[in-house]
Design goal:
Elements: E1 2-10, E2 16-25, E3 30-35, H1 41-48, E4 56-61, E5 64-65, H2 74-78, E6 81-85, H3 96-106, H4 111-124, H5 140-152, E7 158-162, H6 170-185, E8 189-193, H7 197-200, E9 206-211, E10 214-218
Parallel strand pairs: 3-8, 3-9, 6-7, 7-8
Antiparallel strand pairs: 1-2, 1-4, 4-5, 9-10
Helix pairs in contact: 3-4, 3-5, 4-5
Bound molecules: adenosine-5'-triphosphate.
Length: 219
């Protein structure tokens, strides 16, 4: 579950990026986070995973106040979250397999478990046959799917995706969205930021709309 209680964020020297944000995303819920460029979408995502701290209010993730966690407690929090970025942040000098394996290597998992989980993740995103490729040998959509496989390899119960379809055409964007919906159907809480209203318009999921740092919850 993700809960924001009267959350505000101001970057030093700037105007408020988020003002008095209140919402709850229930376990297993899926929602879109929309808004114009600079509305505060990335800031909100970064607050959930502890990459930024709120100036005011509480950000609760599975009941834990993220803004009060100590630096050394952060890795425990991050294990429960899968993060996907627009620019996917893959290591270009590592194979697809290695990129997906990284979170598990960091956690010190046994090689056999790593093999099993990486294969399962790559299978889910349809890239099992490309595990030995390097990211440069893949299309933009495939690279994005490697980033998704890496985000789900540790079985997170929350998936945060910040403009995951930003660089992709309509067909690929719909494919990626379908993938998130499939994860959501297995009980994963999903929050996906996008400025692509056409992509989300006919979907049933809740829309959290940011307008200059203020939240307007639609439907
Ligand atoms: N590290 C930072 N330091 C100072 N100001 C920042 C920082 N990051 C974001 N901002 C400012 O906070 C506001 C919200 O930015 P944010 O990146 O959260 O918006 P966004 O909705 O994700 O935009 P986009 O769709 O363009 O990615 C903007 O005014 C931005 O300039």
């Amino acid at each position: 579950m993700i809960q924001f209680q009267r959350v505000s964020k101001v970057y030093s020297g700037g105007k408020p990026a988020l003002q008095n944000i209140n919402f709850t995303l229930l376990p297993g819920e899926m929602a879109f986070l929309t808004g114009h460029s600079g509305a505060g979408k990335s800031t909100l995502m970064r607050l959930i995973c502890g990459l930024e701290k709120a100036n005011d209010g509480k950000v609760l993730l599975n009941g834990i106040d993220v803004s009060r966690l100590k630096r050394q407690e952060m890795p425990f929090l991050r294990r429960t979250i899968g993060m996907i970025f627009q620019d996917h942040q893959l290591l270009m000098d590592h194979t697809v397999y290695d990129n997906v394996a990284i979170p598990l290597i960091i956690l010190g998992k046994a090689p056999e478990e790593i093999r099993r989980r990486v294969s399962a993740s790559l299978d889910k995103v349809g890239l099992l046959n490309k595990m030995k490729f390097y990211p440069i040998q893949l299309s933009g959509g495939e690279q994005q799917r490697v980033g998704i496989a890496r985000a789900i390899v540790n079985h997170p119960n929350v998936l945060l995706a910040d403009e995951p379809t930003g660089n992709l055409d309509d067909k690929l964007s719909k494919d990626i969205l379908k993938l998130f919906e499939e994860f959501n159907q297995t009980g994963v809480t999903v929050l996906m930021a996008t400025h692509n209203m056409a992509l989300v318009r006919h979907k049933q999921h809740r829309i959290l709309h940011l307008n200059q740092g203020h939240l307007e919850v639609k439907n």
